[in-house]
Amino acid sequence: TANLKKINHELRQRVLQLLDKKQVVERQADRLTCQNDHLCKELAIIAKLSEQLEKENELLLNTTDKELEEAKTQVRHQQNNIKKLEHTVKTLKSVILQTENEIRQGKSPSRLDAFIKTLEEDRDYYKSKTENLLRVLQNKSSSPKRSSTCGSMSTKKSHIQISQETAFNEKAHLQQRIEELETTVQNLDSERLEQMSRMALMKEHIDSLETEVKIMARKSQDSENELSHQKDEYISLSLMKEKTEQILSEAQRSLAKKKYEIQLNEEEIRHLNEKIDNFSKQSFAQEEKICALKDTIAQLDKEKETLQECVEEEREKIVTFEENLRIKEKTISDLEILISDLEHSIQKSAEALCICEKDITSLHQQLQETNKELAQANNNREILAQEKDRLQEHLSNAKQENQ
After folding, report:
1. What family is reported (predicted)?
2. pLDDT, tens digit, 9 for 90 and up, residues 77-86
3. Which of 146, 370, 386, 402 might form a disulfide with 150, Cβ 3.0–4.6 angstroms?
């Protein structure tokens, strides 16, 4: 009887210990679940940061490309303006040369007048073109001492320099962020290994618990056998035996329940192992993404060097363009002086034309006087007719010269 009480007390103690261990295992499983959730959130944050980094790199490249295209467009526009200005200068030179040649050749005043009108129209047209071009250049200039092209290109160069500095800062920030991400991944790997070791310890602990349960079951079976052998000898203790059997049956039910709970814990542990495997796969995928991101950054560095070379070439072209523009401005000033001289010569030609018109008027008056003399002097008609023919011939020659 004392042995049975002792065995029952030990069984109860073992059951309480098993319950405590079960609670400890459940708390550990909950803690591992929380840690896995935290790790999953960290991986999601890492993925978002990687996507944000790629978007920022793409935005930086697009901004740099747009600024370079704008600079190229501005340079092409200025080149077109210079070509138009050169064409205008050539046209003016040809017109001036043609006018000088015709003046030297002594063309008739009427034809000279028509040519002067055409020349004045061309002069007004090219003057308006020149004034419009100068006004556009002055409106686009950033300072009163520099042309519009210099101001716009200096602004573009400052924008490009600011973009380059921003790109360098973004690159340093991204490299620092990648190092932080690599450190986080290493910490996550160490935590994963620590969790795997803890899970192995938990499995060993569960195996030891199962062994103890089996030992307790064997002890319970031995107690039942001993009670069956002593049944005849301890008839007076049959009530106590029944109570003991009830306690044992309850203990067996409790053990069965504990076994079922242990099986549930094993399934939860198996589920945790699957989560750990998934986490390992996700971690490996993140490492691959980080490697791809590093390759992308290296490619971006190469593209940045290429862009810098292009910028240097554009700067050299801009310097050449500025020199050509100064030469063209000097040519325009010379052309303005030539135009003023041409206007002066045109004024002189107009005065000569007025003198010719006065001569023609005088000839008409002489013709009228001759007609009067012919009417009055019939006797000298033949002589006057010859004089008239001579005068008419002279008049026709003068008209031809005027035409």
Report:
1. Belongs to the CEP135/TSGA10 family.
2. 655 655 665 5
3. 146
